[in-house]
Amino acid sequence: MKIYNSLTQRVEEFVPNEPGKVSMYTCGPTVYHFAHIGNLRTYIMEDVLEKTLRYADYDVKRVMNITDVGHLSSDADTGEDKMIKGAKREHKTVMEIAKFYTDAFFSDMAKLNIKMPDVVEPATNCIDEFIKMISALLEKGFAYKAGENIYFDTSKLKSYYVFGNQSEEELMVGVRDDVTEDTNKKNKNDFVLWFTKSKFEDQALKWDSPWGVGYPGWHIECSCISMKHLGEKMDIHCGGVDNMFPHHTNEIAQSESFLGHRWCNYWFHVHHLNDQTGKMSKSKGEFLTVSLLEKKGYNPVAYRLFCLQSHYRKPLMFSFEALDQAEGTYKKLINRIASVKAEGSTDEAALKEWKNKFVEAVGNDINTSMGITLLYDVLKSDLNGATKRAIIADYDKVLSLDLIKAADASAPADEHANDDPELVAYVEGKIAERKAAKKEKNFELADAIRAELLEKGIVIEDTREGVKWKKA
Ligand SMILES: [Zn+2]
Questions:
Q1: Which of 250, 247, 251 is nearest to 234 (CA)?
Q2: What spacing in Å lies between the alpha carbon of 60 and ligand 1's midpoint?
Q3: What is the CA(59)–ligand 1 centre distance, in A?
Q4: Which domain holds residue 382?
C-alpha cells in the first residue's frame, strides 16, 4: 500500500513498525456541538483508510479520543472554552453537554457507516497520564511555569515546523482570530500544557495537580491517549488538514521531547469540504449536520458516496445540487446491483483476482473513486451473478455503502406495474412535490401532501432507499 505522508510531503510505500500490524490514531471530536458534515468527511475518509488496511489483511488497532475538556475556540489556547460555551448556550452542565454530543457523534458515525474505533477514550479519563507527561516535560526542561500555567517551550526544539508548510499568515494567531495573545508565553508558538490560573473562573472541570487545581491544555490529550493504548511508536496519525497546525505540530513537539525518539511515522490529513464562499463549517448560513440532510430527505449513505467520489487530498466542493447528483448515482448503482441475480456458484479465483485489483487501486493513496470505477467494471464483466454479488459484497467491506443490503431491499422496478398508470403518475408526482417541500424545509406542506395521499388510500413510507408507497 501507498499513502501520502504529510511529514515528507510525498506518497510513500507504507511500512508498519511491526510486520502485518498497524497502530492508528484519530483526533476525535470536541463534543460541544453537533458535528458538521465537513468534519465528518474527515472521519469517513479515515474509516476508508482503516478498512482498506484491514482489507489488505493488516491487523489494525485504532484509537480515538473525545475532547471533553480544555479546547478553546482558537486552537492556539486563546478565545472561549468550547465546552463552557456549549453548556451556557444550552443551560446544561459541561458533562451533560459532553454526553449528549458524544452520543450524537456516535449516531452520525453509525448513519454514515463509519466503524467505531477499537478504543474511544474521553480526555477526562486520563488526567493522571497528562500530569505524568507534563511533569516529565518539566523535568527534561521542555516546559516552564509562567503566570501559574505550564507551557511547552518550543525554543528547546531542533525543529518545530515539522510539516514544513507554515506561512506567516497562519502564524498570526493573535491577529487572525481577533483575540489577545497570551503574554506569559516566552515564544510565540509555546502552548499551554496545564491551565492553573485561567481566565475562566467558571471552569466546571478541575483537577488537583502538582501545580495547583486546574485543567489540561488541548494538545496533551492526544499524545497521552495514543501512548496509553498504542505504545511509544505509532504507525499512522490521522486528522483534518486544519489539525496540522498547531495541533499536530504540538503533539509531535511534546511527544518526541517526552520520548526522546521518533513517535509516529505517517501523518494522514483529509482536506476541507468547501462551498462557494470557502470552508463550510466556518461560513455562515445553515449549519449542515447529518440530521439536517435526513430532514431534507437525503440518505446519509449518499453523502458518504459523495465523499468517496473525490480524493481526500483535494478540497471537496459541496452543494445540494452535487449531493442530488450523488444520490441519483447511488440509486442507479443500487438498481443495477439489484438486477444482478445470484445465479451460478461463486468463482473463488475471480474473487481473489478482483480483490487484488481493489487493493492495488484503493491502496494507492486511498483512491476511492478508482474503487467505485472497479465496482462498475465488476457489473459490466462477464462474471456470473453469484460471483458479481460476492465481489460487490467484498468491496463494500471498505466502501460501506450498504450495496447488497440496499439492492436486496429495493423494490423491484415493476412493483407498481399492475397498478393504474394514471394513479402511479399521480402518486409519484405527489412524492416528488413532497420531496421538494422537504428540501425547502416546508414540513407543513410535506405533511399535507402525505395526508392528501392517505385520504386517497395511499400510504407512503420513508426508507433509506427512498420513498415507497402502497395502497392502504
Ligand atoms: Zn489530536
A1: 251
A2: 19
A3: 23
A4: 293-409
Distance 242 CA to ligand 1 centre (A): 11
Domain at 401, CATH number: 1.20.120.1910
Query: Biggest alpha carbon distance in the chain?
Result: 82
Q: Separation of 74 CA from ligand 1 center, angstroms?
A: 14
Can you list the alpha helix ranges (DSSP code H) found in 202-310?
Answer: 220-230, 249-259, 290-295, 300-308
H-run or E-run covering 119: strand 119-122
Q: Decide if 33 contacts 87 (C-beta within 8 A).
A: no
Contact 334/296 with Cβ under 8 angstroms?
no
The residue count of the chain comes to: 472
367 and 433 share a domain? no
How many angstroms is it from 219 CA to the middle of ligand 1?
Answer: 6
Q: Which residues surround ligand 1, an ion (CB under 5 A)?
A: 27, 222
Cβ–Cβ under 8 Å, residues 202 and 231:
no
Question: pTM of the predicted model, to two decimals?
Answer: 0.85
Tens digits of residue pLDDT in 199-215: 666 677 889 999 999 89
Residue 44 lies in a domain: yes
244-283 pLDDT tens trace: 999 999 999 999 999 999 999 999 999 999 987 777 765 5
Helices (H), 25-121: 37-55, 82-90, 94-111
Phi, then psi, of 154 in degrees rounded to 5: -70, -15
